[in-house]
Amino acid sequence: MCGIAGFLSAQHAPAERAAAVARMTAAMRHRGPDDDGLGTWGDATLGMCRLAIFDPANGRQPMSTPDGRWHLVFNGAIYNFRALRAELATRGRPFHTECDTEVLLAAVAEWGEACLPRLRGMFAFAAWDAQERRLLVARDPFGIKPLYFRNQARGGLVFASELNALLASGQVDPDLDPAAASAYLAYLAVPAPQTIYRHVFSLRPGECAVWQGGNLEIKTYWSLRDAAAADITPCATRADFHAGLRAQLEDSIRAHVVADVPVGAFLSGGLDSTVVAALMTRLGGGRLRTFSLGFGEAGYSEAEAAADNARHLGAEHHATVLGGAQVAADLGRIVRSLDQPTGDGINTYYVSQAARAGGVTVALSGLGADELFGGYPSFRDVPRLARWLPLWRALPAPLRTGLLARWGRGDERHRKLVDCLRHGNDAVSLALLRRRVFAESDRAALLSGDVPYAAHPEESRLAAEVAGAGPLAAVSAAELSGYMADVLLRDSDIMSMAHSLELRVPFVDRPLITWLWRQPAEWRTTPARPKSALVAAVRDLLPPGLAERRKRGFTLPFAVWMRGELRPFLDDTFAPASVSRSGLFVPAAVQERWHTFLAGNDSRSWSRVWSLAMLIAFANRPRPA
Predict the structure, then answer these.
(1) Which of 211, 434, 540, 564 is deepest in the core (most CB within 10 A)?
(2) Is 121 a member of any domain?
């Protein structure tokens, strides 16, 4: 795991580029405290800071091929690097380390862009071909690892693993994009390829790009369409599916625990993380270290259930009790460390801190199981709404207009229903709309200037990829490419790397997802029994009663803290001068939101108010000099 950066330009002197890249890598030292490096070849200057996971004594970057043609910086982990190494060795490629970086470099040198579908792992990398004066950059298929860039007007390119690093380069203006702020209020994140800054973009999951002669060409190298076309025979029976799923899960865990440093796991009281920890325990490798968060507030903490799960597994369990006072004390540092605003991820920040302090460098998480096995209400609600949509469209237009106007004056739930009926076309669009934080009318009221409706950037592509696949597959695709990629994976990266922890997500594994995509979608879940397939595949490993336990989302006690320990921060954030400073907001509408929350008792409304506060706090951060 690393932070990578680069500056390519024929217009800037090598020394100027090197100074900019050095500033970027210094700004990401938390991502790679073990080593750093920088090199210049022609028009390209590449740099990195390294968290050593494989072959810690070697694997320095930038890494170059023996002939001096290719030069690589790489962030992530290639889980099948040993199999690729054996294949590349038969082609005459020499190896001098036991590091996945050297294998990735050889794969790029041997196959070019064609190596990308061969890679199993999480990655963002940049490889400079000094002979062709050409740069290849790529991001893994599901967006586990980030890559941000600015394509400059004079044909130069700057890129980095974090936006804060790009700002440190001195080549990027920290101008907030009002359209991105609007997208954040819709989706709790700024979906790629946008970022919160003007003219700065993110490579999308499954994309690669080639920079040559000042031109940047972006293309998709993998999508769910490739999974649907994979040469995999669907299982004949549900029993075969459960057995096959078990084998796939074990294979994924086996791949994800490979490391030359200590590996642990996040463990809550729920199913997903327990499945990961149980499979890790079954596969052996010593007593597993597990980490969880607990809270003093009744009704929120899963500490007791997590401890029970750990005892069943025989794990060495580490529980951290988190309080509102601690979060309030840390908020300034957390906001300064953010790449982009987020209303989520605080839990990952603290459990990652605990894991690193507990002696592990790598931790596995259960993230991704909800998206694959129907763990969200959207798997129940969206197919039902999609069935009713044609009947709704068949109603006379005046009747629909009247109903929309009436529901639009209702509560948040009714206003979001209005958005679904007005803008939804199919299960994909409905699933993405259902994920919106603020309804369109509320978003327009909070933001100054025009706030036009904008569909999620993945909507049309996903709709084409899952056409004819059925509503459950459509919802799964939308959750994977929307909420998971936009919010969960992005926050997991920034929050874990803030503590120099490599976080791995074995459910978000291309071979596993490809295999699942070739099976009947209805075997993965049923509305009455979410995650039924996951339970059936691993029931023998689970603690008694866990499979029947009602799902409860992992929620911090923000509804309590926001009226208590976090109240001073929020009062300051929602003060008129604070709200007005960026020019993005309508102060009266923002303050009304805050006062309504304080006066009410809706335990669900906290997330919207908190998300708004984090956007304002982010917008008011001191700008780099």
Answers:
(1) 211
(2) yes
